[in-house]
Amino acid sequence: MAESTPHSVSPALLEGIVPPEVVARTEKRWIMTMVTMLLIMVAIIVVTGITHALQPASHVEVVDPQTLHLRGEFVESNLGTAVEPDGSVTVRIVAETFAFVPHCLVVPAGRPVRFRLTSADVVHGFLLPNTNVNTMVVPGFVAQVSTAFAEPREYAMPCHEFCGLGHHAMWAHVSVVPEGRFAEMTPYERTSCAQQ
Ligand code: CUA
Prior knowledge:
There is one protein chain. The protein has helices spanning 20-51, 179-184, and strands at residues 80-83, 89-96, 99-101, 104-108, 112-119, 124-127, 134-137, 143-148, 153-158, 171-177. It is an alpha+beta fold. The strands form 3 sheets. Strands 1, 2, 3, 5 and 8 form a 5-stranded mixed beta sheet that branches.
């Protein structure tokens, strides 16, 4: 004799088939979970944007990459560190395969510093470790990041977007110097890595 005993199956559903009201309840819970996660992620973006000064990669400002060297803000004589009338500092850099121009940048500690970058050819990246400065540098656009450095420090600045065979060698330096020392430096010294 077979051991099997008849299961108590509800007349409407076979075993293993979930009733529609249970499916609806589960789906509703998943939607609530997803919406909650989305809201948390949006809140994280907003909070870090405000408290850590994270900024979008592009400043939504266009520039012609083919005439950078001929006219406009990014001609060679205008690159490097400039002091604005309000005392803040603007640094202009062109990224190109496989170098940052200028290669060396000196900025003061304790003052607002605004980096403005663009690319002459392909996409590069600009990163100062442990700061809010981290942006893609896209040809045709100006990337702008505002920051301030509390302490003097040397930053090695790697290109962090793969841009070709020389990508690994695309480095520059940002040297954050004390306020007093910066004031004494000549414009040439502010774009030089030479020891003063
Ligand atoms: Cu430039 Cu990688």
